[in-house]
């Protein structure tokens, strides 16, 4: 029997599963609430401009952007690898020879919650998060500039605050209102982007971006992936069309669609490596003839499409 669930229902189920499978993360959240709720530093942020719809969390201390973005960095402690590793390091230094288990870590966090989350270790733990957070903020601000330059300076672009459920649950970094429509953008850093032409004449792009998984972002929620490199001031954007995207490995994604916008110069390189070992049946069944026929057919169809696009552009 096939059961369908909505996007919201899926996110609720996913969040519940994460909590049940990571008891340490859940315990960290509980300790943060226990510390900061009595201090009136725990709850939802105000949302007068519609860009800050958060769940409950630590607010107004160790802010993402002090004085501007009031969601606390402490809310990232539950899943941040560097923070979790530092807590394990502190546990080991204070309990030499003791096995690190979830139960032992939970007891240690309970006994040391003030030192960890509102005391002598807090600044160090926050700083372990800062580099990633500051870089993310920098990327998004660069993304806003790119979109303003492309659509016009008077274009309405909304950046969701840190902790906003549209960002944390749906991957919506930016909302753009242009041409009477709304599109949602996920901004990601990249190190390299290259275009290729394969043996059959298809063009595609390979983008290197560490640990980016496009399958996390539904086409309904995120329509555009905007890759930015603030060091080189380069960018390239692609549509989030699942059928035209392929994850090659943890560091590289392949797009089988033209880019939406870019300031880079691409040179199509021939991708032949994957064809070096020609299958035996290619010769037996004379596949070369079929490939030639296919390319000739595609050439004629492409020429028709080129003329059609020229006509469309001339009418604008």
**Average pLDDT figure:** 86
Which fold name is given in CATH as the topology of the largest domain?
A: Trna Endonuclease, Chain: A, domain 1
Q: Rg to the nearest angstrom?
A: 25 Å
Main sheet summary: 6 strands, mixed
Number of domains: 3
The quaternary structure here is single chain
Strand tally: 15
SSE ordering: HHEEEEHHHHEHEEEEEEEEEEHH
Strand content range: 15-25%
Measure the end-to-end span: 50 Å
Sheet with the most strands: spatial strand order? 5-6-7-10-11-14
- The computed structural class is alpha+beta
Describe the global form.
Answer: elongated
Residue windows where pLDDT falls under 50 for at least 5 positions: 7-13, 272-276
Count of helical regions:
9
Helix percent band: 40-55%
The CATH architecture assignment of the largest domain turns out to be 3-Layer(aba) Sandwich
Please report the first level of CATH classification, the CATH class of the largest domain: Alpha Beta
Observed structural traits:
22% strand; 316 residues; alpha+beta; 5-stranded mixed sheet; Trna Endonuclease, Chain: A, domain 1
Quick take:
This protein has helices at residues 7-21, 23-36, 81-94, 102-111, 113-118, 122-151, 165-168, 280-284, 287-315, and strands spanning 42-43, 57-58, 63-65, 69-72, 156-159, 174-178, 181-189, 192-198, 203-208, 224-229, 234-239, 245-249, 252-255, 261-262, 269-271. It has 316 residues and is an alpha+beta fold. It has 3 domains: 22-133, no CATH class; 153-273, Trna Endonuclease, Chain: A, domain 1, CATH 3.40.1350; 279-307.
């Amino acid at each position: 029997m096939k059961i369908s669930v909505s996007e919201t229902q899926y996110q609720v189920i996913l969040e519940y599963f994460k909590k049940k499978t990571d008891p340490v993360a859940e315990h960290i959240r509980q300790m943060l609430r226990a510390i900061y709720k009595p201090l009136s530093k725990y709850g939802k942020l105000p949302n007068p401009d519609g860009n800050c719809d958060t769940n409950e969390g630590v607010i107004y201390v160790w802010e993402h952007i002090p004085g501007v973005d009031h969601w606390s960095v402490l809310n990232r402690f539950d899943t941040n690898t560097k923070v979790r590793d530092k807590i394990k390091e502190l546990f080991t230094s204070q309990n030499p020879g003791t096995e690190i288990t979830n139960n032992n870590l939970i007891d240690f966090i309970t006994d040391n919650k003030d030192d960890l989350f509102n005391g002598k270790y807090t600044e160090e733990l926050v700083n372990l998060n800062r580099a990633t957070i500051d870089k993310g903020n920098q990327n998004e601000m660069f993304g806003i500039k790119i979109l303003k330059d492309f659509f016009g300076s008077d274009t309405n672009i909304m950046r969701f605050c840190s902790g906003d459920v549209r960002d944390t649950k749906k991957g919506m970094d930016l909302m753009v209102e242009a041409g009477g429509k709304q599109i949602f953008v996920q901004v990601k850093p990249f190190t390299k982007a290259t275009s290729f032409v394969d043996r059959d004449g298809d063009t595609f792009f390979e983008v290197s971006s560490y640990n980016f998984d496009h399958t996390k972002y539904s086409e309904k929620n995120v329509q555009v992936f905007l890759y930015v490199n603030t060091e080189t001031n380069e960018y390239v954007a692609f549509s989030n069309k699942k059928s035209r995207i392929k994850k090659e490995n943890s560091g590289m994604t392949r797009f089988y669609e033209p880019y939406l916008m870019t300031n880079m110069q691409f040179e199509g390189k021939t991708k032949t490596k994957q064809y070096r070992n020609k299958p035996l049946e290619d010769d037996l069944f004379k596949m070369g003839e079929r490939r030639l026929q296919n390319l000739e057919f595609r050439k004629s169809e492409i020429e028709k499409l080129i003329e059609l696009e020229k006509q469309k552009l001339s009418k604008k």
